[in-house]
Design brief:
This protein is an alpha/beta fold. It has 2 domains: about 120 residues, Aspartate Aminotransferase, domain 1 (Alpha-Beta Complex); about 240 residues, Aspartate Aminotransferase, domain 2, CATH 3.40.640.10. The chain is built from 12 helices and 15 strands. The strands form 4 sheets. The protein has a 7-stranded mixed sheet, with helices on both faces. Helix 5 runs parallel beside helix 6 and helix 10 packs parallel to helix 12. Bound molecules: pyridoxal-5'-phosphate (PLP). The site of pyridoxal-5'-phosphate (PLP) has 13 residues, from helix 3.
């Protein structure tokens, strides 16, 4: 298969140092040396999650596995769940929730708009006995960031356990698990954590445990109680229920150390600056973003409306064929209408964004649009250093 430079919203282009960790000789996933390495890694990942009080597990599998584990562990006894739905992934969690319990209530917002905290507040006042709520932090299908801090405050005041899908945000934009009252936060390694896919880190707060321990949920691998049990019963030699992908765990440790060395705040500011660079470049080319409200636009990926000058599939194909750059199309009801660009970790850099903008300019020109060479960057001051800034 050909390699394309991955400007999609995950998986992303990886730092060669991370790939090198993946190809180190295999080690056993048990024994004192591994336990030390594993437990230290968990502590490092917890710093990226900004949690001290939660437990954290590295579940082998995709992000969806960790989120479904949260849902099945909390509501498979038929408890009531509130699903906040404003996109493709919100809809996925709605379907998964409905498969575990009949008591599902929703707050919806149109695709491209953020969930309103006031709506969440109203529903929680009206509905009794809601055990948990689930929200997608960065809705990758639309480019929206949902107001998780405000939603966390409301859930906390109402005694509702909050589950956050942070698959496309954790490590790229501010997310404070303890301070924002996030009880379960689940992500995946292939996006802002700058690793290949395959691990789903998930944090579980003491408040969430109180409910999980009262729930007679079925299953074994996806049952979070199993994960806790192994850290206790087998903690000194094999602190997880299954064989771990040791190379990927090494890669994750390396990437999280790198993330912390950059500094979380510096990193978030870099993602914000690079998102602005891309958005400004796209405006200069005459494009409109899907998300109209600038306050809820994601800094880790951007959804752009295609227009009469070039269709989304044509643009995507041109970038692949002529520049070996891969961007993404729209999902589900947005298929064919938008294109999406990821800017996470190594792709939230001038070296990744400027060539992408220049390639988009060229695609427009090739389809007959009047676009000057360099128009996307017109009037913009680019950082001169070759570092990430
Ligand atoms: C917001 C969000 N949630 C969940 C997922 C699913 O992640 P995975 O494919 O690792 O299960 C994705 C994948 O793109 C995502 O962007």
């Amino acid at each position: 298969m050909k390699h394309y430079y991955l400007m999609i919203p995950g998986p992303i282009e990886l730092d060669p140092e991370i790939l090198a960790e993946m190809s180190t000789p295999l080690v056993a996933h048990y024994g004192p040396e591994w336990v030390k390495f594993h437990n230290e890694t968990v502590q490092i990942v917890k710093q990226v999650f900004r949690t001290q009080k939660s437990d954290l597990f590295l579940m082998p599998g995709p992000g969806s596995l960790a989120i479904e584990a949260a849902l099945s562990s909390l509501v498979s006894d038929g408890s009531k769940i509130l699903v906040l739905n404003n996109g493709f992934f919100g809809e996925r969690w709605l379907k998964v929730s409905q498969s575990y319990t009949k008591q599902v209530v929703t707050v919806e917002a149109p695709w491209g708009e953020a969930i309103s905290p006031d709506d969440v507040s109203k529903v929680l006042k009206r509905e009794k006995n809601v055990r948990a709520a689930i929200v997608v932090h960065g809705e990758t299908s639309t480019g929206v960031t949902n107001p998780v801090r405000e939603i966390g405050q409301i859930c906390h005041q109402n005694g509702v356990i909050l589950i956050v899908d942070a698959v496309s945000t954790l490590g790229g934009v501010p997310l404070e698990v303890d301070e924002w009252h996030i009880d379960i936060c689940a992500t995946a390694t292939q996006k802002c954590l700058e690793c290949p896919p395959g691990l789903a880190p998930i944090s579980v707060s003491p408040e969430a445990w109180k409910h999980i321990e009262q729930t007679s949920s079925p299953g074994w691998y996806m049952n979070l109680r199993t994960w806790k049990e192994y850290t206790i019963r087998w903690g000194d030699w094999h602190p997880h229920p299954v064989t771990m992908p040791t190379g990927l765990t090494r890669a994750l440790r390396h990437s999280c150390e790198k993330i912390l060395a950059e500094g979380l705040n510096e990193r978030f500011q870099r993602h914000a600056r690079m998102a602005n660079l891309l958005r400004q470049g796209l405006y200069n080319l005459g494009f409109d973003l899907l998300v109209e409200n600038e306050h809820c636009r994601s800094n880790t990926f951007t959804a752009v409306r295609a227009d009469a000058r070039i269709s989304a599939p044509q643009l995507i194909k041109y970038l692949k064929d002529h520049h070996r750059i891969q961007i993404a199309g729209g999902l589900d009801r947005l298929a064919g209408q938008i294109f999406r660009v990821g800017h996470m970790g190594p792709t939230a850099t001038v070296h990744a964004i400027v060539p992408t903008l220049v390639a988009i300019e060229e695609a427009l020109r090739a389809s007959g649009a009047k676009v000057e060479a360099g128009q996307s960057l017109g009037g913009m001051e680019l950082p001169t250093s070759l570092s990430h800034v």
